[in-house]
Amino acid sequence: MFVDEFFTVFLSYSILSILMWVTVLLAMLTLVIIPYGFSKRKNGARLFALVFLLWSIFMVIATISMTGEKIIGFLLLVLCVVSIMYLLMSPVKRYFEKKPMAIVPYEILKEYTYGLYTLYSKLVRLKNGNNQIIYFFSKRKPKSGTPTALPEGFDVEVSNRSGLPYLKKKQERSTIL
Asked: Domain extents for the chain?
């Protein structure tokens, strides 16, 4: 950039200088946004990386056409295309999805059985955006859910109508003095 009179072009007001300023600005933003966003699993960082790589492809093609330097230009072009293909792969997309996670104490991982039924827990996202653990009994292994211990403050009762076990909160006994 600072050789062959590029510095004067960089400081002038022309289409080439605007392209150079945009490239410098994107490169500076990239140094902050991409590492931070990738470590925090922000999908916006992945999209920003895709935009930056597309811009880089455009700049590499422009540089190849202006200077005629093909060896390094084609290597950079291949590197950008491979990086875009990697960011568009489904495992990478899944990495950036927001999935609710819960930290479950080790004691809860012991499973509770009632007859032929095993108690399972599952973390669900409610319509208001909050996460909540639900408990259910099943004879077979369900598609989702983790075998769990009987949570504190709950008793097991059996439905008269269906015969299925369910959890019910223990009644607190109030003493009147």
From this structure: 6-95, 106-169
